[in-house]
Amino acid sequence: MKKKWLAGLGITTMLVGSVLGGCSNSDNGDSSSGEGDGEKVQVTLAGWGGNPSEQKLLEQTLDDFEASHPNIDVKLEVISEQYMDVIKTRLIGGEGPDVFYLDAFEAPALVETGVVEPLDEYVTEEFDVEDFEKPMLEAFQVDGKTYGFPKDYSTLALFYNKKMLEEAGVEVPKTWEEFQAASEKLTNGDVYGFGVAPELARLYYIAQSLGGKVVKDDKANFASPEVVDALQPIIDQHNEAKTSAQPSEVGATWGAEMFGQEKAAMVIEGNWAIPFMEDTFPGVDYGTAEVPTINGEKGTMAYTVAYVMNAASEKKEASWKLLSYLTGKEGMETWTSKGFALPTRKSVAEKLGYDQDELRSALVAGAPYATVWSEGTNLPIIVNNFNNQFVSAFLGDRPLDEALKEAQEQANSEIESN
């Protein structure tokens, strides 16, 4: 994926190493109140970098916060590489930032260590927790406690080439059966009906569509018959029907590039693909729709990132003021105003018109029923082993059930040894 479009969401499992600027909780004195004593308090905020437009929006949001909170100064730190490794090292060393980004994928394991502050006691009625899209909020809740508030998200939607569908006499598919039939009609020469990403981060909701569980009791369970049966159509479409291809098979690096080059009539992508298409392939006329249903049930993935507080911060009151502004209605409206990321607050999405937007409304519609890319503390181990073996079945080298059985055994062996 093009990192510049994903960085604002943190949808890739994390970026990669150096810290721009230092951070210490002892900066600027030992005030924990944050405001009220006349002294200016410095709060450190750490995250990964986005594209220049996203960076400008964040800086504008922080400027607005400082203008309304004159006793709080925000020190923004951009960790451009190996984000989680750097954050973990600094938290362990007692030099972590006061507030920082946390991807839902990484949240369960980090929360378990005790370094993330529970936020429930800081929340007031005015903050309006009910306004958040429920799946995004629940991704940062553990045992009834809330450890972060999601700053933005994306679901997946069906992106389709209007001209190709019209020429093939194909309606926008609403069910997976219609989608497979449309893919067959749209495949022509070096153009495939479906540009597919054969990885668990994209296929998780499909894997569980027949009632199976990819993760059970924090261990890999993706070799179960229900999961194998749910994923088999992805394999069959590629190897038997030959109406799908992954981007690398047509010389592209990711789905939106394959779609923009018009080597795929349909892809299932996220909000990040919209600004990419606008900048890189402005001549392609396309539309979006909700992901086709499977067995009559709607489904999609969601990827979200929260602002969280360092449990060891000495400036918790000021940190909460910053965190609650960034995830509050005013700050979130500014941050998501250009559409690079979608607001996790329903009221903000409505105010900005994303729920009615020609391209983004399908993504917003998927939020209430989305499966968030987050599942227990061992998901990083589980996904690595899944991906390593699933692709061999996808390429036709071995049966899917055999590949996933080996991957599951290896994943659970690593989990047990840890």
Automatic annotation (TrEMBL):
Coiled coil: none annotated. Keywords: Signal, Transport. This is ABC transporter substrate-binding protein. The keyword Transport applies. Belongs to the bacterial solute-binding protein 1 family. One of its GO terms (molecular function) is maltose binding. It comes from Bacillus salacetis. GO terms for cellular component: ATP-binding cassette (ABC) transporter complex, substrate-binding subunit-containing. Transmembrane segments: none annotated. CDD domains: PBP2_UgpB. One of its GO terms (biological process) is maltodextrin transmembrane transport.
